[in-house]
């Protein structure tokens, strides 16, 4: 088992000390999560482990057999290569062997009658065995499955790296890292730019990874699913906790309460000692008072007393004013459909929302989640269908793509614009509830970070006193303490919430209904994200839409549009379909699609893609399911055409 050891490590940047005499061990057989405030030194820790930085004091040592792979937040890639070729470059050694094997094959074919052919054959056999042992015959398949798992389409793979977005570049760097033979991964915010399907795929990959990993992430759900140890980086120290993220939170809370009790006990003791010393220093008990003073000062110097508690440190505090709660149904959606450039986002969508309900909307990128909530507000027109709001609804919208705040005036001035007549003192108190403390209140708007701008936008949103909140990725740019405070406040909001989010921990804590939009369709369930996962995995399926097949006709049309399945030549089908209804066939289509999704996800499992026999069997299974699905879709279309 590989080992990384940090012993008495100190690191400074100028006069700022980031880490102070820290020691920790990291094992390649474990997955460790790193948490802590922004700027606490998490990335600095990674850079020292990778060798990019040297500690000012102390040592960082690694086992000789340890192969460390480091995913940075700003990866470097070859801009001239295509995405496929850049990721394929991780197999440079294998490709060189393959190239030499091709050369030997050509030489053997040209010299098959000469005496040199036996030596060439021996070389070829040695290289072939080396190539196979290194997984050479599966490397292209592994590459395709990792790229697919991380959300790259076949068209994306042909693009030059220079044409990729920043998020796509980060995903490409992650793909390269996962395809290499590292037994310790350092992942700095690996889920940034991943949609909900890609994050689930990454979880499964890490669960089956033969080595270990250390992960810096704000994705609390990921940390719950894959980590068995948490290290908190804060106040220049490292504090380890056993278990996953939820265990860390529970343990930390118990420690905080214990610390508070000890703080009060020590405070009372110190006050009594000082009172005794002050009373008797000049009296008959002077020597006793002097002795107590020396002992107290020594114990204070040695840090034997708790002099600070967590509750004294500042935290974000969001507060909502109650805005006229409604009763009964507040929104009805029927037959809603939307397409862009001939691509269906969703169709025949219908659901109702009642007062006080918390609806989460999630799913892969590009399925129309943000478009849906824009349609519901009249920002984007629908193609067909209807929606109707309660006449007394007051909606406040937190947009993901809102323009950056501009202006060189201070936050206090912005508060006075939002709420005319508010005094400077009251403005500062209000800003403090949103974690703008002290001099933060005088910051100009145009220098605020993304997270700070989000908090200002929330302040402005809540001043409208809504009874319905529509939130598009509200936890983007927020650190974990800010996310948790926002979740706590939203839990107390008396109105209705509709929230688009890929933050699964947020969805678990906040929502009681979940709308999952996928390319195959949509599914509405009662419960949160974990309920959804449990529901789908209980049936042996990966999370998948369970609505009409993607080839279903649009609402209002009597006949379906031509599709590849409908254009298949007339052929003999299984007689059992003759006695089945359209609805029963439709259920078989859904079940078949779900089995296909589950089979495709198995490619993410290392024990599959590292085993050529399992890979071949899985390929056969997928081909069989696809053939079955093709026949079912043909039958379904034929039956609909006859209706």
Q: What does this entry look like structurally?
A:
With 643 residues, this protein is of the alpha/beta class. Strand 17 and strand 18 form a beta hairpin. It is globular, with a radius of gyration of 30 Å.
Short précis:
This protein is α/β, with parallel strands linked by helices. The protein has 20 helices and 18 strands. Helix 9 (245-280) packs antiparallel against helix 10 (286-301) and helix 18 (582-601) packs antiparallel against helix 20 (612-642).
Determine the number of helices (DSSP H or I, runs of at least 4 residues).
20
Gyration radius from CA atoms, angstroms: 30 Å
Tell me which oligomeric state these chains represent: single chain
Helicity range? 40-55%
| CATH architecture assignment name of the domain at 329-405 and 448-535 | 3-Layer(aba) Sandwich
**CATH fold-level name of the domain at 329-405 and 448-535:** Rossmann fold
Class inferred from helices and paired strands: alpha/beta
Strand order of the largest sheet: 5-6-7-3-8-9
User: Strand tally, please?
Assistant: 18
What is the name of the CATH class of the domain at 329-405 and 448-535? Answer: Alpha Beta
Q: Separation of termini?
A: 65 Å
| Mean pLDDT over all positions | 82
Tell me the name of the CATH homologous superfamily of the domain at 329-405 and 448-535.
Answer: P-loop containing nucleotide triphosphate hydrolases
Uncertain parts: 311-316, 542-572
Q: Based on Cα principal axes, name the global outline.
A: globular
Specify the biggest β-sheet: 6 strands, mixed
Beta fraction: 15-25%
């Amino acid at each position: 088992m590989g080992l990384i050891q940090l012993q008495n490590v100190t690191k400074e940047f100028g006069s700022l000390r980031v880490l102070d005499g820290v020691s920790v061990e990291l094992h390649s057989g474990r997955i460790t999560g790193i948490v802590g405030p922004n700027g606490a030194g998490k990335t600095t820790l990674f850079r020292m482990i990778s060798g990019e930085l040297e500690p000012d004091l102390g040592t960082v040592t690694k086992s000789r057999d340890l192969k460390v792979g480091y995913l940075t937040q700003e990866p470097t890639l070859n801009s001239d290569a295509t995405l496929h070729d850049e990721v394929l470059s991780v197999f440079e050694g294998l490709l060189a062997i393959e190239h030499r094997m091709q050369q030997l094959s050509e030489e053997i074919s040209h010299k098959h009658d000469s005496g040199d052919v036996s030596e060439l054959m021996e070389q070829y056999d040695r290289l072939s065995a080396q190539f196979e042992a290194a997984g050479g015959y599966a490397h292209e398949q592994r590459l395709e499955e990792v790229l697919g798992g991380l959300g790259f389409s076949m068209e994306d793979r042909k693009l030059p790296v220079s044409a990729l977005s920043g998020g796509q570049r980060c995903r490409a760097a992650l793909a390269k890292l996962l395809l290499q033979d590292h037994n310790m991964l350092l992942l700095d915010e690996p889920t940034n730019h991943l949609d909900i399907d890609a994050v689930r795929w990454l979880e499964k990959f890490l669960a089956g990874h033969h080595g270990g990993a250390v992960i810096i992430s704000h994705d609390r759900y990921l940390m719950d699913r894959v980590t068995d140890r948490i290290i908190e980086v804060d106040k220049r120290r490292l504090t380890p906790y056993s278990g996953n993220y939820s265990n860390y939170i529970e343990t930390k809370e118990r420690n905080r309460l214990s610390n508070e009790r000890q703080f009060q006990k020590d405070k009372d003791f110190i006050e009594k000692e000082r009172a005794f010393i002050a009373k008797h220093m000049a009296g008959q008990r002077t020597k006793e008072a002097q002795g107590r003073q020396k002992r107290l000062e020594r114990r204070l110097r040695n840090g034997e007393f708790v002099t600070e508690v967590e509750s004294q440190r500042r935290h974000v505090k969001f507060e909502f004013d109650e805005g006229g709660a409604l009763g009964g149904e507040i929104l009805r959606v029927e037959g809603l459909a939307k397409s862009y450039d001939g691509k269906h986002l969703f169709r025949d969508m219908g659901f109702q929302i009642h007062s006080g309900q918390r609806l989460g909307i999630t799913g892969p990128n590009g399925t129309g989640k943000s478009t849906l909530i824009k349609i519901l507000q009249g920002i984007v027109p629908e193609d067909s269908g209807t929606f109707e709001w309660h006449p007394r609804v007051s909606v406040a919208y937190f947009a993901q793509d809102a323009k950056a705040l501009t202006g060189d005036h201070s936050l206090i001035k912005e508060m006075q614009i939002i709420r005319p007549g508010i005094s400077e003192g009251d403005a500062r108190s209000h800003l403090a509830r949103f974690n703008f403390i002290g001099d933060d209140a005088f910051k100009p708007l145009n220098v605020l970070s993304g997270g700070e701008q989000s908090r200002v936008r929330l302040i402005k949103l809540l001043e409208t006193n809504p009874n319905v909140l529509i939130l598009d990725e509200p936890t983007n740019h927020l650190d974990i303490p800010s996310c948790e405070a926002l979740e706590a406040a939203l839990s107390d909001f008396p109105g209705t919430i509709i929230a688009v989010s890929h933050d699964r921990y947020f969805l678990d804590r906040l929502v009681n209904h979940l709308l999952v939009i996928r390319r195959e369709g949509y599914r509405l369930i009662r419960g949160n994200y974990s309920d959804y996962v449990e529901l789908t995995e209980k049936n042996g399926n990966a999370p998948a839409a369970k609505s009409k097949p993607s080839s279903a006709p649009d609402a209002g049309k009597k006949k379906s549009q031509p599709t590849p399945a409908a254009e298949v030549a007339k052929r003999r089908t299984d007689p059992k379909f003759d006695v089945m209804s359209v609805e029963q066939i439709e259920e078989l289509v859904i079940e078949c699609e779900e089995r296909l999704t589950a089979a495709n996800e198995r490619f993410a499992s290392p024990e599959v893609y590292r085993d050529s026999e399992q890979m071949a069997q899985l390929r056969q299974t997928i081909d069989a399911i696809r053939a079955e699905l093709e026949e079912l879709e043909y039958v379904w279309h034929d039956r609909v055409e006859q209706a």
